[in-house]
Specification:
By secondary structure, the chain is an all-alpha fold. Helix content is 66%, strand content 1%. The chain has a single domain, classed as Amino acid/polyamine transporter I, CATH 1.20.1740. The protein has 19 helices and two strands. A two-stranded antiparallel ribbon has the order 1-2. It is globular and about 95 Å long. The model is unreliable at 26-42, 99-109 and 117-123 (pLDDT under 50). Residues 21-48, 95-122 are annotated as: Disordered.
Length: 525
Amino acid sequence: YQLPGAAITSEIYKWVDDQQQDAAGSGGPGSWGGAPLGRTRSKIPTASSLRLPGGFRRHFIRHQAQASGAPEPNIITRNFIDFLALYGHFAGDDFPDDGEEEEEEEEEAGETSPLLAPSTPSIPPGTASPGKVFFLLMKSFVGTGVLFLPRSFYNGGLAFSSIFLCSISYLCLYSMLLLVECRSHISGSFGDIGGKLYGPRMRKAVLSSIAISQVGFCCAYTIFVAKNLRDFLMLVSDCQWIVPEYILVFAQLLVYVPFALIRKIKHLSFLALIADVFIVGGIGYLYYYDITTLMVRGPAAIENFNTADFALFIGTAVFTFEGIGLVIPIRDSMKEPQLFPKVLSRTMILVTFIFCSVGALSYLTFGDKVETVVLLNLPSGSTAVELVQLFYTLAILFSVPLQMFPAIGILENSLFTPRSGKRDPKVKWTKNAFRLGICLLIAVIAYVGSSSLDRFVTLIGAIACIPLSFVYPALFHYKALARSAWSKRADIGIVVFGLCCMTFCTVTTVYSWLFGQQEPEFNRC
């Protein structure tokens, strides 16, 4: 023992040397008792993760995979309900549950706690199969917007709407693939990519567009619920209950406010499941009614190109296809991300077919009598119609809290300090008041926009969805990856197209709203 204090540590080094010699004889170099050193211990689960439903089961599956040398499963998308977790990573951004950090800090260290905990939680590699990703993408794209398309086909005309909708679908797909390509070379969320390429102002612009689009979706859904609920009450009461729309708009706050105060998105899982089931049932019945009616009565009088209102179709088409916020988290959940472009392309083909067929069939069925929400055209006196209208209305009512979650997360992160309200009641109630204000703002905007839902949807599509779908992805690709002259010209062309559509749709929609003929309130009685 020539070094000072060497006698104190000599036994430790001797023990390590003996273990390494034993391992060399049994498990080979770099292993410990036949198990690789990096896998001798599974990740220590936190108490908060074990408290979640299925927490012990998830830890057991991870532990078994590590022990056998198999890839660790990606728990985030193992089942239908866990699709909801993607909204906690909307556009690739992380919106942690309020108080999540304090929960981790409160967990006491035990004998098995690692001395050096990782600074950031480790994210397991994606393991979602192409089939599962296809299912997730379908749930991301098919929702309420499909019911606005029949009226949009009336605004644009059958031929123009069909051709333009397919063109918009291709451009949306191309732009999403540009964003995916950028994500493959630049780490981070949608906003982070813009911040790294163009600075913090671009990141704020992306997040602002996401927040505006999500708030706009909530407002459109609120109007949708009010119109359908009003019609449903007239149906079941034989025109005895005629409730003004504005009352039904603000009455929805009784549902939205409690759910807006929920900090953990996992508590909204049952709402997402119910909503998806009702939406599928409603679209299925609409197909059935349109096809049977066309077979009996034939098509109604239609136009192939509506010169007066075709601009309204453009914004609605982009509004319908806006699902770019979930592209990055779904792509990151794949076991083989290189297959994502192929899966996304096939999904968009099917989604485009659904959108075109619903829009065209309903327009052919109802002609110029088609309503902004096509469910209002279904005949009265049918129990099936009443159930479809009620369930679809409930589906959209349950979808609004889910759409609010990313918007609230973005706005709270930008307006409040990272402090949580778990320990500070003042911070907690300030955030509660802010969330209440967001709900009131949505109700007020919905009340203003309820007089012309199709124009409101077009305006949201023009202001928020067009930049997200076309402008930002092309700008990012132009600066980060475009090398050939053709690629640069394509990116510039998409940006110019997006800005022109955005300006044209916004100006024409505002002018039509202010000086055009207002849509009469639908009334069965």
